[in-house]
Write a structure and sequence with these properties.
The chain is built from 34 helices and 40 strands. By secondary structure, it is α/β, with parallel strands linked by helices. Among the domains are: 102 residues, PAS domain (Beta-Lactamase, 2-Layer Sandwich); 102 residues, PAS domain (Beta-Lactamase), CATH 3.30.450; 81 residues; 156 residues, 2-Layer Sandwich (Heat Shock Protein 90), CATH 3.30.565; 128 residues, Elongation Factor Tu (Ef-tu), domain 3, CATH 2.40.30.270; 196 residues, P-loop containing nucleotide triphosphate hydrolases (Rossmann fold, 3-Layer(aba) Sandwich). The strands form nine sheets. It has a seven-stranded parallel β-sheet, sandwiched between helices. It has a six-stranded antiparallel β-barrel with strand order 18-19-22-21-20-23. Strands 37-36-38-39-33-40 form a six-stranded parallel β-sheet, with helices on both faces. About 1% of the residues have low confidence. This is Histidine kinase. It comes from Ostreobium quekettii.
């Protein structure tokens, strides 16, 4: 701002536009006005004095507060200089408005004062430790906690105050902290106070080494000494309680023994008196002796019952799926003498299976049935009825009611509750033996299983209810949450044990990334291409579809987002994020890590909750009843005209059952029996009936297989799900692939290209410092507006595509996609049903009116990380339990893969000898492909025995996985021999149960792998086949430990992948201790060729 003043009158001769704006008057109005007329009265005199001083001295500088007459707060710096103009001498004045600067300074001072007050009164201690490890700052609260004045600590090395044990531990983590800017470490440690005592602090340390104001490590510490002491007391109390419980248990057994010993002697001497002195005792003496023996017997029984009662719920055995009729059969055998003596008869219905502790369930039945036999009418033989009934609760859940009815003496109904209390007897000991504790044991058993027990006399009927399925879904939810916690802990531990640099080197993380390009994607997602600014992607190992967390500063913090890996190229990676890309990712320097698959768990929980809350009129209630009971079979077969003329009778029967079942049908498909072909026919038939179909599977590979076959059959199919997880062959029928052919997508792509061009221009200007943060945000909002328009256009396009589809395909978990909205389907197909955990199986079922499940319970089970959840049943599937309950299942038996010799062992051992080799494969061999015959390895089945070679298995240090270098060398030699005979590497698969062995073989067979040879663990070959398969069993040790090989379902997968030639390499001495492998070796001797590694 500038003014020209008459030095004599202080009137304004001229003014520029900024001055006019400051005073709020036009320039024309200002001319001729005295400057003092524009100012408040209290500064007018001072202005005149300052201007007079400037006239005399030639120049002057002064600052004026509250200058403006309008009363607006102001702070102005005035500089006046005398100068000659055409109109004579004038004062040239420049004015600098310091108002905002002054206000900012005041606010900063106020903020500093507030910060100082917060620091001084904070319960926490704040330290800054410089890069040399010395205290550079300590908050005043350090004096209250540790006794030091904060200035005493400045320049002191922090590690000199730490407890020696904690100092050693911290030094191990300090190195990793030094190497990672913004890394945060949380730990508990002891620190020495001024008086020499130690206190416990919980500290959060963040690396701010690159911050210009800090240049060190900021430590926020809280005194938790009292909490630690309390925790230590609680631990001590818990240990003491546990010790007391052990002592009590030991005392119970000792007391039992000590109490029983004199009772045994009383009975023994009583028996001796009866035998040797009966005549001398006389009738009265014998009566007394009999009473004494009876009392001793009752006392002994009472002691045993009391011990049983106290032991019941402390044994902690996991529940198992139990066939009630098998348990009952054992109980009746135990009670055989009582049953014969009382001439008891039984009426036993079709009993349901239960989830229960086997010992407790046996005890429950024994107590109830022995009571029914014991409390009988003198003139009438006992008749006992044992029945179960499936009942539906008001909320739609299912419970199993177990009812035991007898024709006994009965009781007054007013005592119905009392009889389940310890020592409650309704009849005298002289008439009916017992201690009065049997029904109390029953109540305790039933309550331990989450049920309730009641007794009714009508006359003489026990009515017992135990809950099975009413709480099964809630129990499933808890197991699922256990599994989620186990997976999260696994990821968290792996992350905590390694620094970011370590994780980058391991290929599971990337650092210092920047955004290169942004694209809208189906389902309200955004795709972004990211590139490291320094590193390359040479060692990056994560695959498309991996869950990710993208973060700056700290994982899970304010600047952290969940994403999915889309693609990996030579110098960049593509990711998916839900919604818009976060603003903070527009600034380079963020990182990327592998993350636990939380979305999958959330979908499982949501599906469980939906079935828990299902009302009876909804589809979920009908399906739930089928899942927890026995599904109704088809009433009348409808007429079926096959669309696939090559289906065999078993496949046609499976199709018929699937189409006609009212709610749920099961198809059992052993290896090579055409399970997928059967499902394709089911789907095509449903489409012909104008039914809407959702086809799902546990794995992406199986879904893509369905897509390819449906497309080949001419069905209008759409594959939804992350494009990252879709195979190249199925991509053309994926929602992404179809979108690119849609006319609406063209306009959306144009808008995306414009948005990316604008974003690049903004980034260039920002890098050059030409844009403020606010300006950059404003310009980026236009980019996001374009992206939003593009996304809306894509949504319209995808709804058009989905509305035209006959069949939607997705993984079981992916069927929860918001793209489908609340759409329900007439038919839902779940392939690989025996590989899907129940929560994931429920996800597609929430959209179903009818369901077809297909799978093979004799192959790979679901993957469960939590051992606790697996023990309690999460590893068992709906398919398996339905079959166990007697649900109708159609088994496919004609296989089109394996030579009959290869097929024989899995058929006999696993499938009850029911598999049949089709004529087209029964005798096919490698020689039919032009492969040179081998005079030693004759036939389709060969076992090479490494027993006695000394090739012991060993643990890989880094991973604890098992490997066998000696056996690996033999495997490599055999594979090279196959290739030399003329087998194409693309026709050979190598299967081994351990990843460490996979790595050994991959290193040794690099050229062969480049030519198409596949080496994988058993999981990697599920659903696959090769002309020749080599199985390396790895295990060889003196202890005959076989590890993973104990899971014979996995080995069934390995032994059923080969079409023409199966070679198994293993140590017979190690594996033969297991019955499955002993049978396999017998089968090789009978049908195949057994060779020794010593002689080949």
């Amino acid at each position: 701002m500038a003014l020209l003043l008459d030095p004599k009158t202080s009137r304004i001769a001229d003014a520029n536009a900024p001055s006019a704006a400051f005073f709020g008057q036009p320039v024309e109005t200002l001319r001729g006005l005295p400057l003092t007329a524009l100012c408040q009265g209290n500064v007018r005199e001072r202005i005149e004095d300052d201007l007079s001083r400037a006239s005399e001295a030639g120049s002057a500088t002064f600052i004026l507060e509250h200058m403006l007459a309008c009363g607006m707060p102001s702070m102005v710096k005035f500089h006046a200089t005398m100068m000659n103009t055409d109109c004579g001498p004038h004062l040239f004045c420049t004015l600098e408005d310091l108002t905002q600067q002054t206000q900012d300074a005041a606010a900063l001072a106020s903020g500093k004062e507030l910060f100082r007050a917060l620091i001084e009164h904070s319960l926490d201690i704040l330290f800054v430790i410089d890069l040399s490890g010395e205290f550079a700052f300590a908050s005043p609260s350090v004096e209250r906690v540790l006794g030091y004045h904060y200035e005493e600590l400045l320049g002191v090395r922090a590690d000199t105050l730490l407890h020696p044990e904690d100092a050693r531990k911290l030094s191990e983590r300090w190195e990793s902290l030094l190497n990672e800017p913004s890394k945060v470490v949380e730990l508990k440690h002891r620190i020495r106070c001024k008086d020499g005592h130690y206190r416990v602090l919980a500290s959060r340390i963040r690396n701010h080494a690159t911050h210009p104001m800090l240049e060190g490590f900021v430590v926020n510490a809280r005194d938790i000494t009292a909490e630690e002491k309390m925790s230590e007391k609680l631990r001590a109390h818990a240990q003491k309680l546990e010790a007391n419980n052990r002592e009590l248990k030991e005392f119970a057994y000792v007391a039992s023994h000590d109490l029983q010993e004199p009772l045994r002697k009383i009975r023994a001497f009583g028996d001796r008196l009866d035998r040797q002195f009966s005549e001398a005792l006389g009738e009265r003496g014998l009566d007394y002796l009999g009473r004494m023996n009876l009392a001793a017997t009752r006392m002994s029984t009472l002691i045993e019952d009391l011990l049983e009662y106290s032991r019941l719920t402390t044994q902690g055995r996991p529940f198992r799926r139990l066939e009630l009729h098998e348990i009952l059969e054992g109980v009746l055998t135990d009670l055989e003498i009582s049953i014969r003596d009382q001439r008891a008869t039984f009426d036993i219905g079709d009993l349901h299976a239960l989830e229960a502790d086997p010992t407790m369930l046996r005890q429950l039945l024994q107590n109830l049935i022995s009571n029914a036999i014991k409390f009988c009418k003198p003139e009438e033989a006992p008749h006992v009825s044992v029945q179960t009934e499936e009942r539906e609760n008001p909320d739609g859940s299912i419970q199993i009611e177990l009812t035991i009815t007898d024709n006994g003496i009965g009781f007054d109904q007013k005592y119905a509750k009392n009889i389940f209390q310890p020592f409650q007897r309704l009849h005298g000991r002289n008439n009916y033996k017992g201690t009065g504790i049997g029904l109390a044991i029953c109540r305790k058993i039933v309550e331990h299983h989450g049920g309730s027990i009641h007794a009714f006399s009508a006359p003489g009927a026990h009515h017992v209810t135990t809950i099975e399925a009413s709480e099964a879904l809630e129990r499933l939810k808890q197991l699922w949450l256990l599994e989620q916690r186990a997976v999260q802990e696994q990821f968290t531990k792996a992350r905590q044990d390694r620094t970011l640099n370590d994780r980058v080197r391991a290929g599971i993380a990337l650092r210092d990334l920047e955004v290169q390009e942004i694209l809208a994607a189906p389902g309200d997602y955004t795709r972004a291409w990211l590139a490291p600014r320094k590193d390359n992607l040479e060692g990056f190992e994560l695959r498309s579809g991996s869950p990710l967390v993208v973060w700056r500063d700290e994982i899970g913090g304010e600047y952290s987002s969940i994403a999915t890996l889309w693609r990996v190229e030579r110098d960049r990676v593509g990711i998916y994020v839900e919604g818009d890309l976060p603003d903070w990712m527009e600034t380079p320097g963020f990182n990327l890590d592998e993350e636990a698959p939380d979305a999958t768990f959330q979908r499982g929980v949501k599906a469980i909750d939906q079935f828990i809350k299902a009302e009876q009129h909804l589809d979920e209630a009908t399906i739930r009843k089928a899942l927890f009971g026995v599904p109704e079979p088809a009433d009348r077969p409808s007429k079926l005209t096959p669309l696939d003329a090559l289906l065999n009778p078993a496949q046609l029967e499976a199709v018929q059952q699937a189409l006609d079942a009212p709610v749920l049908a099961l198809i059992h498909g052993p290896p090579g029996t055409g399970k997928t072909r059967t499902l394709i026919e089911v789907i095509r038939q449903a489409v012909d009936r104008k039914e809407t179909v959702l086809a799902t599977a546990a794995s992406n590979q199986a879904v893509d297989n369905l897509v390819e076959r449906l497309d080949a059959a001419g069905v209008e199919v759409v594959r939804i799900g992350h494009p990252a997880r879709v195979s190249e062959a199925a991509m053309a029928r994926s929602l992404d692939g179809l979108l690119e052919q849609n006319e609406l997508y063209g306009l959306a792509k144009k808008w995306m290209d414009e948005a990316n061009a604008a974003r690049r221009r903004i980034q260039i200007r920002a890098d050059r410092g030409q844009l403020s943060y606010r300006e950059r945000r404003e310009q980026l909002s236009e980019v996001w507006s374009l992206m939003k328009d593009a996304r809306q256009q894509i949504k319209r396009a995808q709804q058009t595509i989905l509305s035209r589809a006959d069949v939607i395909c997705a993984t079981a978990a992916g069927s929860a996609s918001s793209i489908l909205g609340k759409k329900r389907f007439d038919l839902v197909v779940l392939d690989e049903a025996t590989q899907a955990t129940d929560p994931i199986a429920l996800v597609p079922l929430t959209r179903a009116k009818r369901v077809v499940m297909a799978g093979d319970p004799c192959q790979l089970p679901p993957t469960v990380i939590s051992q606790q959840a697996e023990k309690q049943g999460l590893g068992e599937t709906f398919f398996e339990r339905l079959v166990a309950r007697g649900a109708s299942v159609t088994m496919l038996v004609e296989q089109h893969r394996m030579n009959e010799t290869i097929m024989r062992f899995p058929s006999d051992e696993t499938y009850n000898g029911e598999l049949i080799a089709h004529d087209s494969v029964a005798s096919h061999t490698l020689e039919d492909l032009g492969v040179e015959p081998d005079a030693v390895r004759v036939g389709p089945l060969v076992f090479i025995d490494t027993a006695g070679k000394g090739w012991e298995d060993e643990r890989e240090e880094e991973t604890e996985s098992t490997r066998n270098p000696g056996q690996a060398e033999l495997t490599v030699s055999e594979i090279k021999g196959l290739i030399a005979r003329g087998v194409s590497p693309t026709d050979i698969g190598v299967i081994t149960p351990y990843k460490a062995q996979v790595r050994l073989l991959e290193q040794a067979l690099k050229e062969e792998r480049d030519a198409g040879l596949e080496i994988a663990s058993i999981d990697g070959f599920q659903g696959r086949e090769k002309e020749a398969i080599v199985v390396d069993l790895v295990r060889s040790n003196a202890m005959m430990e076989i590890g993973f090989l104990q899971d014979t379902r996995r080995m069934n997968v390995a032994l059923t992948r080969a079409r023409r030639f199966l070679l198994v390499i293993g140590d017979s001495a190690t594996i033969s201790a297991h019955p499955y492998y002993a049978d396999f070796l017998d089968a090789v001797q009978e049908h195949g060729v057994w060779l020794s590694a010593w002689t080949i």
